[in-house]
What does this fold into?
Amino acid sequence: MDRRQIAAIRWGYGFGPGMAPGDDPGSLLAGLSAPPPAALPPLPPLEEILSRARARRMANRAAREGDPRAEEMVAQTAADVRALRRELTERRLIAPLVSPHGFVERLVSFWADHFTVGARGLVLSLLAPHHVDAAIRPNIAGRFAELLTAAETHPAMLVYLDQDASVGPDSPLARRRGRGLNENLAREILELHTLGVGGAYRQQDVRELAELLTGLTTDLRAGPRFEPRLAQPGAETVLGRRYGGDPASMRDVIAVLSDLAVHPDTARHIARKLCVHFVSDRPDPDHVARVEAAWNASGGDLPAVYAALLDHPAAWAPGAGKARQPFDWLIAALRAFAVAPGRAETARILRRAPVWLARMGQPLMRPPGPDGWPEEAEAWITPQGLAGRIAAAQALARLQRDRDPREFVDHALGGAASAALRRAAAAAEQRWEGLALVLLSPEFNRR
Amino acid sequence: MPITRRDLLASGLAIGCSAAASPLMTPVVLAAAPGENRLVVIILRGALDGLDLLRPAGDPLLPALRPNLFAPDAPGHDLDGFFTLHPALEGLAPLWRAGQLAFVAAVSTPYRGRRSHFDGQDLLETGGDSPDGQLPPSRDGWLNRALRLIPGADLRTAFAVGQENLLLLDGPAPVSSWSPEAELPLSPQARLLLERLYARDPLFAEAAQRAFEIAEEASASATGGLKGAAALAAFAADRLNEETRIAAFSIGGWDTHRAQDRALPRALGELSAALLTLRERLGGNWDRTAVVAVTEFGRTVRENGSRGTDHGTGGTMLLAGGVLSGARVHGRWPGLGEGALLEDRDLMPTDDVRRPLGWLLAGLFGLPRADIEASVFPRLEMGADPRLLA
It folds into this structure.
């Protein structure tokens, strides 16, 4: 691969119409200051999501209580939720499809995975995509502390990691209702989102952080907020530093997150994750060290971190060792075919996309756990995973049967196709089979 | 002297899941066949309410603890005068009568306290012993570690069925994996061209080769018409009728925080369909088969405010198959009375779920107890043989 191909394939979602040109760090970083893709419809407000979910629950309750109007309410609220879910889910596919700045979209996906929220169940199936566009996307070009705070305090995260069920054991409400502490969010903040599993924290830090987080809560009626009646009284000590005291407030939560964001263990953990995700399952230690140093020197200023990530020989080394994850693969395929929103055919493709992604082993926004998707190529290129790619490639190619595979092979890979792939694309029995071969080639599946 | 797969494993050449596809692994020298016994492990993800599956109907405290979930006038299918079976499992009554259904009551993993699904499931699948859910450093599945002890085991001996990566079978020993939903609709010419493209990329070449092999075998398994767990079971049974001896898959839908009376029968229906499909498709091999269904933890003894149950500790293990020692409820029942519950909320576990699993491995595959205690479930003391198998 040459630099232009590396910029598009390793650092972006592949070649597509309307993409910003560039083969150097500066042009990739320029996308960070661009506005969100214009073709993206407005994000449904959080209030609408909460009220639709609440209506759905009320209809269920009415049905259980034998309310005669329940049947109609259930049907109506279920249809409302379905429509909203589809709108939110399709945004996840449309944004990288239409954006001229593939690197920015890849960063959105990286951070969405770093701050995983599984879209399971009524509430999270709606909140998880909102989390990506409301908490992640607007904060990827600032300081990590801001991204961290936005990601942890969004209601999706509060529900996914049970913060909405955590109550200070000595708070007024716990004593009255017999509820207590839930350490889930605190533990994952330390283990997954900041210091990393090898970081300098102990169980006592998890517990104290969990107590410090009490008060932070959400529900379908009032949304996310800091509720002092739920907060554990008194100060807490996390990693040797005291936070809080009375009265408890949101300021304490922001303070501890801001400190965690610039902790050297956080820098080390996330620098390595960035290099692993973008460049290699076995990253160059010098590359990781440079990114880590940029994090520490800048206090977690993300554009500076990305600049260090891009400004290293390893970032532009020609060999493609990573496997494109199914989401990455699908977006690249749709971009190669210039699938554009607003057409009837696109709507059909977007409706089928979640099934394809599931068969390839990556159901949309539903990773197996809060640690997100695996990185290693071996986790994706399994017999059933590859069978899923074959089936999806063929289904997509059949929809594009008037394309000529001999042109498509250059278009899809920007000239990075091997001579063997060019020959194969031309030797297929039918045009669509040639197109599918391109999508299934190692060149198109690695980056 | 030929190099065997076990030599390679010992030399550390086989790493990670890619081992399944490494060219070094293909020419296996068979020291011995893994025998005729078969094991199916079903992971029930989401925490099955063991007290609703296997109901302690003879305990007078049950109706008060579960006013909406247990009706004394419709207690379920009577098993032994004390326990009854959830009505949604009525279809399994013939297995019980035939001595092919059993349970282990009040078991749990060593996981305590935090009751997180993913920690609980990871611990269940890795076979670790950390009460706070810390995984063993190797992060491989206990069934993969067991596989390494089975003489003559190869790539086909163990099969992970379904779309997910099963941690239970993950590790250095090569295993097969496939999802019955997967299809390979390639023309011969397209396949030929694809194989040529993959010739220079071993990862793709080996995954594709396995995919083509399995798809060919699988095309004989008519799972058409079957859905969900029954399709997984049918596919597993077809593999078990060939060279495979260990199959594993998972069934979800057990996290019944609300309206359990409606949510649980759906999941139980899946489980029941899976078991009945296995029995039917395995034919005569059912007599050499043990199926074990395990979950990450049990649920609260008392029903909650939304006619469901919350995350608990002690749960129920289900066993089925023709090699069982008979229709029995194994294990020591801790009771539901004052002081008998863990933290005044959960069924008190009276046994570690890994002990019956260890005894199954010993009985089915002849694994020495010392090896199980040393490497499959490190630091486990297996205790007395519960005689699960005939």
Q: What stands out?
A: The two ends of chain B are 40 Å apart (CA to CA). Confidence is low (pLDDT under 50) at residues 1-31 of chain B. DSSP finds twelve helices and twelve strands in chain B. Chain B has two domains: 50-180+224-376, 184-220.
